[in-house]
What we know:
With 258 residues, the chain is an alpha+beta fold. The protein has helices spanning 4-8, 29-38, 89-105, 165-169, 175-193, 199-208, and strands at 20-23, 46-49, 71-77, 110-112, 116-119, 122-134, 137-147, 215-220, 223-232, 238-242, 245-249, 253-256. The chain is built from 6 helices and 12 strands.
Amino acid sequence: MYSKEELLDGLDTKLVGKKLFLFDSIDSTNTCAKTLADADMEEGAVVFADYQTEGKGRLGRSWVSEQGKNLLFSCIFRPSINKELSGLLTFFAAVSAALALESVTKKTVECKWPNDLLIGGKKCCGILLENSFAQDKIAYSVIGIGVNVNQKKFDSNLNSTATSLRQEAGKELDRKKVLQAMLQELDMQYKNAATGKFDSILKEWNKRCTMFGRTTSVAREGSTITGKAIGLSPDGGLMLETASGKETVYAGDVTVVS
Ligand code: BTN
């Protein structure tokens, strides 16, 4: 495990990572960050772990990651934006992570709605956004990021869909460099996201999204909706052109069919 000094050495951020909590093992960095945020921890604080016993993914799934090989961290933000725009924070996280991963791997990173990052069509990074609201405002937003950095093998059920930076770049990567690139980009992009300016973030996300124009299925509780993905709605939903007209979805398990 890295020391705090090692991880922060050379990091030049204004906000993100100014407070850092490190764990060899933890239940979930998101759960820990939410507890800290509930106790008024300042924004920019980062929780980093080498291993999670109860790593959380989207849609109630678990996030499994080999000990000491990857990146597992969560960051607390307190943006001054209305509740209705909270869904757009996911694109802030995805674009920050995509820019960081492109700079360290020199590979093209694709964005899959809502917040998966892929290289060569396989997922290398997942993001879990957990918001807490106070009336119509965001009290805090915890952004949890898992990056497969140096893991070489995945469970057989993930083999065809998951990858790591090592597998794509063909060489082991320095986890500290990847983390610092991520924190640096989050720090930079947050200047806009903090006050609800999402235009440039959405432009970068749209540029990397490979779903538009393709037939896409979104499985939601009890039903699946299929249509051509045609873009994002102003509040970050995925717009589909279906046989019965245009529909916008806000959550679900997404498969690009053809
Ligand atoms: C997904 O793709 O389903 C989202 C995965 C998010 C995983 C990260 S790992 C660090 C942080 N802590 C968690 O428990 N989950 C997120």
